[in-house]
Amino acid sequence: MDESTRAMNAATQDMRDYALYSTVLVGVGTFLLFVTLGLTYMANRAAQDAVTATREMGEAQIRAYLVVGGKKIVNDYLSVIPEIEVKVFNHGQTPGILKKLHYEWSYDEPSGVVPTYRNEDTQIKDNVVAGGEDHQFGTTNVHPNRPYLFGFIEYEDVFRKTRTTRFCMKMTIVSADKITSEPAGTPAHNHWD
């Protein structure tokens, strides 16, 4: 073989080696590109999850939390059956729009996994209860033989989410001008979301 043929063969083998190196490096680069895309996707998902968690925490901090209460006696001390105010308190920072209010008295402590209510006693409302405020919605008599006051309120917060607060308490007449209350019923009767 002459010198020129040897030189062409050596150059061809060098080109083959360079093509192999180039193909291997392109393969490694493509693999690293897919790894980078996968890691970018996971970082994007983590960022979305962080934004969702932050939004939920922010909403939980500023949304309305409506609860029912009422122990203030509003009638005179000579009345045989005390009458108390029924108030809805907003322990949140933003207003809540009260949609439904239901309360009733019972001889026995409410029980069961799912609370049941008489639909005819449900009051449809459209009142705004400002953050940190309370709103009186009426009065009711406290009967010594029906000490359990229970019910629910349904309201909408500023994020347009419908929320429900259930309550159950035992009211005890201590004297003509004093009533105490304590939680009663099952966890389902005192659940809120």
- The helix content, as a percent range, equals 25-40%
Strand order of the largest sheet: 4-3-6-7-8
CATH architecture of the largest domain: Sandwich
What is the name of the CATH class of the largest domain? Answer: Mainly Beta
Low-confidence stretches: none
Total of domains? 2
Percent of residues in beta strands:
25-35%
- Element-level helix/strand string: HEEEEEEEE
In angstroms, what separates the terminal alpha carbons? 91 Å
Largest sheet: 5 strands, antiparallel
Q: Count all strands and give the number.
A: 8
Mean pLDDT, rounded to whole units?
85
CATH third-tier fold name of the largest domain: Immunoglobulin-like
Shape: rod-shaped
| Category by helix and strand content | alpha+beta
Radius of gyration: 35 Å
The number of helices is: 1
Care to describe what's here?
- By secondary structure, this protein is α+β, with helices and mostly antiparallel strands.
- It has 2 domains: 1-62; 66-190, Immunoglobulin-like.
- Helix content is 31%, strand content 35%.
- The protein contains 1 helix and 8 strands; from the N terminus they run αββββββββ.
- β6 (148-156) and β7 form a beta hairpin.
Report a brief summary of the structure.
The protein is α+β, with helices and mostly antiparallel strands and 193 residues long.
Give the topology.
Blueprint: H1 3-62, E1 66-69, E2 83-90, E3 96-106, E4 123-129, E5 134-141, E6 148-156, E7 162-175, E8 178-183
Antiparallel strand pairs: 1-2, 2-5, 3-4, 3-6, 6-7, 7-8
Task: Using brief descriptors, characterize the structure shown.
single chain, 193 residues, Immunoglobulin-like, 1 helix, 8 strands, 31% helix
